[in-house]
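Below is the data:
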Amino acid sequence: MTYRWAACICLCFCVLIIGAIVCPILFLAVFPYQHMKFHVIDASLTEFYLTGDDILHYNLTVNISIRNSNKIERISYRIIRFNLSGYGKDLASVSLPSFLQGTKNTTLVHPVFQGQTSLILRGSHFKDFIHDRKEGSFSIDVDLYLITQLKYAGGGKGDKISFTVGCGLFRLNLLGSSSSLSNQTGIGGLFKTKRCKVHTDRIYNLRIFFYFLISFIFITLFSSCISKLLQS
């Protein structure tokens, strides 16, 4: 009986030690990204017209806030690319330099889409563009592609993880900030801040699954050990 009781204590101790090491590591590798927040705080469309030879001329400035609410981990944005689309087409993309964001910090970025691209519209997309041109406001979609890496206190680094961030569809009036009812506060024609949605990749989702799975296994094993100790 004494040998069995000692074996149970040893097993419980091993399970507790392994769980105390593995679970925090998985937690630090997964959950800090839950505190990333992105908001479009302003957008200005000063040029958006289509010539007779199907060339779109555009000039759009977007102001986006990026928030790291973590108290411990810094976030390194290795790749940050902004994509502009509309009327069923990818129109342009802009990349910004990589940067390191500190804890409890908000960074403002100002991507500018300016230039021209071939845009051949057919069917409903062509009708929508003609309608919007008459209205003087256009439907534009902005999203982000990111590759990030966590930086821990003491110099440790996490794995590189990719994300897409969808900021949704905007109705932007030409020549100035948006005056669409869906995007403004209704007070002085100010732009209404819009929160973007973070979409994680498959690897990140697997990490969350394994975190809960391993946590469940350790809790089950530890509960079983305690039960055997009480029975002995």
Observations:
- Residues 202-231 form the longest helix (30 residues).
- Residues 176-182, 184-189 have pLDDT under 50 and may be disordered.
